[in-house]
Amino acid sequence: MIRNLSAWHIIVLVLVVLLLFGANRLPGLAKSVGQSMKIFKTEVKDLRDDDTRPDEPTEGTTPPKV
């Protein structure tokens, strides 16, 4: 899908975004999108770390009896 984008597509997309949001609101919009992406990436990283970390009992707890 992204491979089919030409320069004209990008120009039209930028113009539509400018018309919808206006030049004054674009910096704030870009900042909020950047912050959201940062939060999303850290959450995905935390989930991956949880999956790869072996299950270890925490201090003060006893492992379950089998």
From TrEMBL:
GO MF term list: protein transmembrane transporter activity
Main location: membrane
Membrane protein topology class: Single-pass membrane protein
Keywords recorded for this protein, A-Z: Cell membrane, Membrane, Protein transport, Translocation, Transmembrane, Transmembrane helix, Transport
InterPro entries: TatA/B/E (IPR003369), TatA/E (IPR006312)
BP terms from Gene Ontology: protein transport by the Tat complex
GO cellular component: TAT protein transport complex
Lipid biosynthesis in keyword set: no
Keyword Cell membrane in annotation: yes
Assembly information from the UniProt record: The Tat system comprises two distinct complexes: a TatABC complex, containing multiple copies of TatA, TatB and TatC subunits, and a separate TatA complex, containing only TatA subunits. Substrates initially bind to the TatABC complex, which probably triggers association of the separate TatA complex to form the active translocon.
The name this protein goes by in its record: Sec-independent protein translocase protein TatA
Native species: Cellulomonas algicola
